[in-house]
Amino acid sequence: MFKFIDLFCGIGGIRIGMETQGFKCVFSCDINSECQKTYNANFNELPAGDIKLVDEKTIPQHDILCAGFPCQPFSISGKQKGFDDTRGTLFFEICRILNEKKPPVVFLENVKHLVHHNGGKTLQTILDKLIELGYFVSWKILNGSDFGLPQNRERIIIIGSLKKEFDFSKIETKPRCRLVDSLDKQGDFEFLSPTEYTLINNPKQQESGLIFAGYRNKSIRKVGVRPGTEHLSRVHKQPNRIYSVYGIHPTLPSQESSGRYFILTDDNRVRKLTINECWRIMGFPDTFIKVSSIGEQYKQLGNSVCVSMIQAVAQEIKNQLFGDERNANS
Predict the structure, then answer these.
(1) How far apart are CA 254 and CA 242, in angstroms?
(2) Structure confidence by residue, pLDDT tens digits, 30-66
(3) How far is Cα 19 from Cα 43, in angstroms, rounded to an integer?
(4) Which helix or strand (DSSP H or E) is residue 262 part of?
(5) Among 23, 219, 285, 330, which residue's CB has the most CB atoms within a 10 Å radius?
(6) Active site residues
(7) Nearest-angstrom CA–CA distance, 216 and 63
(8) Cα 68-285-310 angle, rounded to 5 deg
């Protein structure tokens, strides 16, 4: 059985996706105490805390290093000082573990903005350092909406392999689905009064799959707004926007701790998404154990991953990068 470690593990979204493909987790780490509690409740394993305090020599040998790490600018990027260019950043912690353990594969996940972070220097430094450590590296922006989830959630996936370059084109996607198919049929729903919102006529589905259907009657952005465009979604802050359940949902952000996600239902009423519906459109199973407050759960979801997307990537890692060894051992 191939083994992986789960760095910056959060609540375990990457772990769920990896385990569906038969990989075994041998080490986890996250500094957030609430995430640690949730992780422990679901996997019976309390992650190590601050990765900076983890001695890389004590980490078990593994085949894949997985990390959904926060991105930071590098102060000396481009100076060709090996992975020491990244010292002082959280990516350096990944580099020192890779340098010590040399796992065959590294699987990194981050926000789409990493592509443009620090003028593109951050991503380039990450790629350069992985190459210097001996990895063939490839990356791609993937969207949760292409993996059976009704959420427009774009994330960068970086795969490094000591053997060969990973081919993202072989990842199996799924048809786009609608938000309405992931909603609770019954529940203690929080509906808005018709006086609290305005619906627009004939809403159009955007290329992303979103259908902006209206907005709460709150203040809008005034600066730079052209006459006649006041109803458009871009002038309304995200918590004021209303989207049709016949499209998909925008990205659940980590900054939203009140769950102000409003939808126009199939019976033409407006309500908030429930916390359980938010878990579902991230791809977490209904059996997933939640132990934190509702506010913490919204933050955890906003920082997590689309589970089915991770599963699809993990499947191709197994097929492309471990296929020969798996067949030899079968």
Answers:
(1) 19
(2) 999 999 999 999 999 999 999 999 999 999 999 999 9
(3) 11
(4) strand 262-264
(5) 23
(6) 71
(7) 49
(8) 30
